[in-house]
Amino acid sequence: AVVSTQSTGGANGHWRPAVEFCDVCMNTLDIIIHLEEEPAELMVLLNKLGLMRFKDRLSQKHNASKQDVDNSKSKSKDLMKQYADMLNNNQIRFLNKMYAKDYMLLGYEPIPER
């Protein structure tokens, strides 16, 4: 299977649930940034860290307009649906079970079954 390798005796690091390697439960997290929401959530982080004075510099480097961000989110959701449509319900249930703690702790939604 893609998510498992015999040589490591378990889950491939690229597919491991985040809660297995980032110690979410052992730390008090103030902010969780979803990468697909990064431009908007970066501003929350800058504000929290008192670094809003660097906003313009970072915005210039990132150079994403609101329309670009909205288009990117839409494309990301379309791509996710396209990949999910390739899965059968057993595979979806397997992935939802495997990532259940990630969904709960990091604020993501499980893959809907058909």
**Broad shape:** flat
Distance between the termini: 22 Å
What does the oligomeric state look like here? single chain
The average pLDDT value, as a whole number, equals 76
Summarize the amount of helix as a percent range. Answer: 40-55%
Low-confidence stretches: 4-9
Sheet having the most strands: 2 strands, antiparallel
Give short descriptive properties of this protein.
mainly alpha, two-stranded antiparallel sheet, 4% strand, flat
Q: Topology of this protein?
A:
Layout: E1 4-5, E2 10-11, H1 38-48, H2 55-62, H3 66-84, H4 89-98, H5 100-106
Structure description:
The longest helix is centred in the middle third of the chain and has 19 residues, at 66-84. A hairpin with a 4-residue loop joins strand 1 (4-5) and strand 2 (10-11). The protein is flat and about 50 Å long. Residues 4-9 have low confidence and may be disordered. The chain has 114 residues and is mainly alpha-helical. It has helices at 38-48, 55-62, 66-84, 89-98, 100-106, and strands at 4-5, 10-11. The chain is built from 5 helices and 2 strands. A two-stranded antiparallel sheet has the order 1-2. It is 48% helix and 4% strand.
